[in-house]
Design goal:
Layout lengths: L4 E5 L6 H15 L4 E5 L1 H6 L6 E6 L4 H8 L2 H11 L3 E5 L1 H5 L1 E6 L7 E4 L5 E7 L14 E7 L17 E6 L4 E4 L6 E6 L5 E2 L2 E5 L4 E8 L2 E6 L23 H7 L1 H14 L27 E5 L5 H14 L2 E2 L10 E4 L3 E6 L10 H7 L20 E6 L16 H10 L8 E8 L2 H7 L1 H6 L5 E7 L16 E11 L9 H14 L9 E4 L3 E6 L14 E15 L2 E11 L9 H12 L8 H22 L5 H7 L6 E4 L5 E8 L6 E5 L6 E4 L4 E4 L4 E4 L3
Parallel strand pairs: 1-2, 1-3, 3-4, 4-15, 5-7, 16-20, 19-20, 21-22, 28-33
Antiparallel strand pairs: 5-6, 7-10, 8-9, 8-11, 11-14, 12-13, 14-15, 16-21, 17-18, 18-19, 22-23, 23-27, 24-25, 25-26, 26-27, 28-29, 29-30, 30-31, 32-33
């Protein structure tokens, strides 16, 4: 299977604002299908990133620090990965770095001249293409009128629509590309205008200079750009551009923004990626190039909880915590705020209204995140986030106009049809949120008053979290939820085993249905969900022709403990209904029907939520009384590792065979092949299991 991670180098030398702009552009174009992950040199040096990566991006900045961090073994790995079918995108400094030779401002105090190890472009990147560059300001920047060589991209002509051949693109310090020989391994995608000058002699103009080049590298590809194609006009402050050559920069970029976005999409298509078509469409909103997504209200309603007194008590407790009067009262709505890690505006939905929350009040509370320059780490800004919690009784549930991508009424109906009491007792739903896990984890006051078993669902997560430092992709059709469970520690029911119960519950929720037992759904230690992927050439990125197991979900469990009681947040992501980016449960069902002439029904996301939470409660009740031992055989029946031979990276690459897992602490048991009496125990939270290579290594924190 092809990788899903877009790795963005974020080590020393990277421009902070440039990195922030790049991350947002990558998320705009690729975030629907790929995980955009900032990484440092340690990851490239020590982790097996190659198996999961689909693209490595080197941003603008200074390439000398890149050399200091990456020269030698890391560059050797990068080049081997690209030659084996990987993709490299180098922008500005990343373009210099990806060339065989860099000649930056020769003969000046800024001079950087020398060979480069990656050498994807068989020639020299010469810069600056324009004089006046200053590391500390934008005085050398300009909106150059670049010529797009459409025929070189190999994309459908219809992509370009009626766009002009010459478009305005941001430039600041990049080089132009001069090949040593014309061997056909590099092609020009975009050219500078004819006002580029030779930095060794500024009286000499360079006509038709290459601004963006595409380089064939073995079975892979590298695209190097001297232009900042990732810069959108609304990232930039007009007040920063006061020189005669750039005074109108922002206005020019704004006028050409849709053309720039189609160019960026064409570059990704040329590289064999699948950009979001919406990112390349004509933008109806003239005020922003790429308006940041807006979080939507969180609706909270009783699901399996049906007791009138219990429901009323829970509603009252949440309302009573909102004691601060906010500043967003409109349309007669009393703006009451629960002050937690963020300001949570608590509203009680009114029955009979078409909208449970007035549109004007919603807009006044939930505004887009700032889309200007952000910090180097893109952490939470200093200003407080705002969210909205809408309390809904059974007769005041939102309709399809307020939750068009998830049917809360259907979900509650399914949950009441399946036998459970605690798990899924209350349902929280937001169409768009930053992260269901983060929302409950950060807002501890709110979480402490939510009923046990509350499950928080979202259709889109802006910052979905995976295990370790992984991100979680949020394609439409993916069921993403966090369930809150309060667990009293018992000797026979250790908390560490609960992640295994949740992963087993999700698989068993489907395979225990009549006729579904033989569906190829599996468990990967410690907490990933896999399914048999049948490649379809027109709908995925796979280079394989034979079926293979691919990841369709994962579990992330966070816990806190007070007075012997654990508060657990089970974060789950399950691709239920979208064949992309790997496969899905419903794709597996369709493939099974085709292969066995059966008519098994696909599973709506809302029903999958009900099945998974009910099965979790069933297994959890067994676990509380008898421990994990009675569930071991069911777990082994569904996992991928029976008798698998693995390599232990932290034990001098010793070979071992998987024996099983411990029913008391969840550690993976493996027997040494060289010394059969030796059995190693591997902790689930301290090791990474690379399925493709059968490699178990220590996970870097």
């Amino acid at each position: 299977m092809s990788g899903l991670n877009v790795l963005v180098y974020s080590g020393p030398g990277v421009s902070l604002n440039g990195r922030a702009y790049l991350l947002r552009t990558l998320r705009q174009f690729l975030g629907h299908r790929y995980a955009i992950i900032p990484i440092g040199a340690d990851t490239l040096r020590a982790e097996p990133w190659e198996t999961k990566a689909v693209l490595l991006v080197m941003p603008g900045g200074r390439d000398m620090p890149y050399m200091a961090e990456l020269n030698g073994a890391v560059n050797t790995r990068i080049r081997a990965w690209v030659a084996g079918g990987g993709r490299y995108l180098g922008i500005c400094a990343g373009g210099y770095y990806g060339s065989a030779r860099c000649e930056f401002e020769p003969g000046t105090d800024k001079q950087v001249v020398g060979d480069r190890e990656l050498a994807f472009f068989p020639g020299t990147c010469v810069g600056c293409a324009y004089e006046g560059f200053n590391y500390k300001s934008e005085e050398g920047a300009r909106a150059v009128e670049a010529t797009v060589e459409r025929s070189a991209f190999g994309v459908a002509e219809s992509l370009w629509r009626d766009d002009p051949m010459k478009i305005r693109i941001h430039y600041n310090g990049g080089g132009y590309f001069v090949p040593r020989t014309d061997d056909g391994s590099a092609r020009v995608l975009v050219r500078y205008p004819d006002d580029v000058t030779d930095p060794r002699d500024r009286t000499q103009r360079i006509k038709g200079a290459a601004a963006v080049v595409s380089c064939a590298v073995g079975r892979g590809i590298a695209v190097l750009s001297g232009l900042h194609v990732e810069y959108a006009w609304d990232f930039l402050a007009a007040s920063s551009y006061t020189q005669p050559h750039n005074r109108g920069l922002v206005a020019l970029m704004r006028a050409h923004d849709v053309f720039r976005r189609r160019l960026v999409g064409a570059i990704f298509l040329h590289m064999g990626l699948s950009p979001d078509p919406d990112a390349m469409s004509d933008c109806a909103d003239a005020t922003h190039s790429m308006r940041a997504p807006v979080v939507t209200p969180v609706f909270l309603a009783p699901a399996r909880a049906t007791g009138v007194a219990a429901v009323a008590s829970a509603m009252y407790a949440l309302t009573a915590m909102a004691t601060h009067r906010g500043e967003c009262s409109v349309d007669g709505v009393s703006d009451m705020v629960l002050q937690d890690a963020e300001d949570i505006h608590v509203v009680t939905a009114q029955a009979g209204d078409r909208r449970r929350v007035s549109a004007s009040y919603e807009r006044s509370v939930l505004t887009p995140d700032d889309i200007g320059p952000v910090s180097a780490t893109e952490e939470m800004p200093e200003s407080r986030h705002h969210s909205m919690l809408v309390l809904c009784a059974n007769d005041a549930l939102p309709d399809e106009h307020e939750t068009p991508r998830f049917d809360m009424r259907a979900a509650i109906k399914y949950m009441r049809e399946t036998r459970a009491h605690t798990a899924g007792s209350w349902l929280m739903y937001a169409d768009t949120t930053r992260s269901t896990q983060t929302f409950l984890e950060r807002n501890a006051r709110l979480a402490s008053h939510l009923p046990d078993g509350t499950v928080h669902v979202a259709t889109m997560q802006l910052n979905g979290r995976g295990r370790g430092r992984n991100a979680w992709i949020s394609p439409v059709g993916c069921l993403q939820f966090t369930m809150l469970i309060r667990h009293t520690q018992r000797k026979q029911a250790p908390v560490v085993m609960l992640q295994y119960i949740m992963s087993l519950a999700i698989v068993e929720a489907v395979t225990s249905l009549p006729g579904y037992d033989n569906l190829p759904l599996r468990l990967k230690w410690p907490n990933d969900l896999y399914a048999l992927h049948v490649p379809v050439s027109d709908s995925d990125d796979s280079t394989e022709s034979a079926p293979a197991f691919a990841k369709i979900g994962g579990i992330l469990v966070n816990s806190s403990c007070s007075r012997g009681e654990f508060t657990l947040l089970f974060g789950c992501g399950i691709n239920v209904a979208n064949r992309l980016p790997t496969t899905s449960i419903n794709s597996v069902i369709r493939d099974y029907n085709d292969a066995h002439a059966t008519r098994l029904s696909t599973i709506p996301v809302e029903r999958m939520l009900a099945l998974a939470t009910a099965k979790f409660e069933e297994l959890y009740r067994t676990f509380l009384v008898y421990g994990f031992e009675p569930l071991l055989q069911a777990y082994y029946r569904r996992w991928l590792h029976s008798d698998q031979v693995v390599t232990l990276a932290d034990r001098d690459y010793e070979r071992a065979q998987v024996v099983g897992i411990s029913a008391t602490d969840g550690q993976l048991q493996v027997r040494s092949l060289g010394s059969p009496r030796t059995v190693y125990s591997l902790q689930p939270d301290g090791n990474s299991f690379d399925m493709l290579r059968g490699l178990i290594s220590r996970k870097l924190q």
